């Protein structure tokens, strides 16, 4: 029996649209959904004085040499992860040949240190010219940029000068800036983020660049960026103060841990203070299009077999832990970390590929199964498959065979926008 009502639903709906118009507009503006396109699985930092146009190839060659030298150790560690060691090693080697570095920052901050203005000017110019050469010759990482000095008073002028020199040299060389991102380290206030927006606007005007060309990522290295004196999550306000220019939040393991008073021996991406900071970052970035990156480990796979084994095992576990928690990117500090970066990443996707593709296919075909997935979970499944393809753990042909979907179809399902 139909239920009668005297409510004028059309009129009430119009009234609701008027009442919620501002909230609807704010939601669409502030939370536009995931950023389209590929997210790199890592960021490599190279001190500016050591950067050359050939650095990506050099890192790949050094990683392959380490893999050759300690091959049996690598195979045993991969086997411990429950992965097909032969297949995974083949994929890792192919990656180290074709694209050893996905994202690169020429570092003018902690990895570079304090130099005279004359010296840093020289390194800024030469690094930018080498970066332009690598782009022109097809040897650059797909994503690239610099880490400038922070906007605290003692280093503010130097950081701005270096950024201006680098951008000026790239523009003069007619290098495309599509993949260029500046890392803003040690951010402590929303005001520093709005200042960074102002810097980008002024440099765009100076060098006749399109509005929005220059983008930056915020490096969360201080507790002040997580929790303000009023008890609010400052990092959430930072994201929205960036006016759409912030591409990512990067966790800084060692600075953040040290600020929190953690003894050096226990500073880690897996420490509870790190987990708390990253959970706040994750909630702040959700739905905004701003991506997340975990930090790094300073335990390097160098030295004798035992040292390499221990460092590789640690790195494998940390990368896998990050991936399981939804941090799909991290930092790598040494070429010998590349084999385990890609082994952990490929293993994460290869191990879960049959289940994820099966669940997605069941969802799309409305096939009954032991898992009742909802639309949000279907998006997460599609995003997982898309990330697997973007990093090289699978390809479009395999995904089509497993799901019946093209890579374009998976992408539309994974990131539909608002």
Write the layout of secondary structure elements.
Elements: H1 9-30, E1 42-47, H2 55-69, H3 71-80, H4 85-98, E2 103-107, H5 117-136, E3 143-147, H6 156-172, E4 180-184, H7 190-206, E5 215-220, H8 223-226, H9 234-241, E6 246-251, H10 253-259, H11 272-285, E7 291-293, H12 305-324, E8 330-332, H13 338-365, H14 375-391, H15 396-403, H16 407-414
Parallel strand pairs: 1-2, 1-8, 2-3, 3-4, 4-5, 5-6, 6-7
Short description:
The chain is of the alpha/beta class and 418 residues long.
Question: Top keywords for this entry?
Answer:
TIM Barrel, 418 residues, alpha/beta, eight-stranded parallel sheet, 16 helices, single chain, 2 domains
Strand order of the largest sheet: 7-6-5-4-3-2-1-8
Radius of gyration: 23 Å
**What's the count of strands?**
8
Mean pLDDT: 94
Q: Describe the main β-sheet briefly.
A: 8 strands, parallel
**CATH topology-level name of the largest domain:** TIM Barrel
CATH class of the largest domain: Alpha Beta
| Overall geometry | globular
Strand % is 5-15%
